[in-house]
TrEMBL record:
Domain 4-oxalocrotonate tautomerase-like: 3-59
Family, as annotated: Belongs to the 4-oxalocrotonate tautomerase family.
InterPro entries: 4-OT-like_dom, Tautomerase/MIF_sf
Name of the protein in question: 4-oxalocrotonate tautomerase-like domain-containing protein
């Protein structure tokens, strides 16, 4: 059973719903497995809890 973890900043529920569907479809197509076996975990990190290039994302 594939488990896909997506780490990202907060997004709208509708966007996450679409992302989960597309990721699931990609695994179904590539591995020829039932959609029920694919799990997608979305871990949302607030902009003040991550950084890039030496700056908090919230400061951009």
């Amino acid at each position: 059973m594939p488990i896909v973890t997506v780490q990202q900043g907060p997004r709208d529920t509708e966007l996450k719903r679409d992302l989960v569907k597309r990721i699931t479809d990609a695994f179904v197509d590539a591995y020829r497995i039932p959609a029920e076996t694919v799990q997608v975990w979305i871990h949302e990190v607030p902009a003040d809890s991550w950084g890039a290039a030496g700056r908090l994302t919230a400061d951009k």
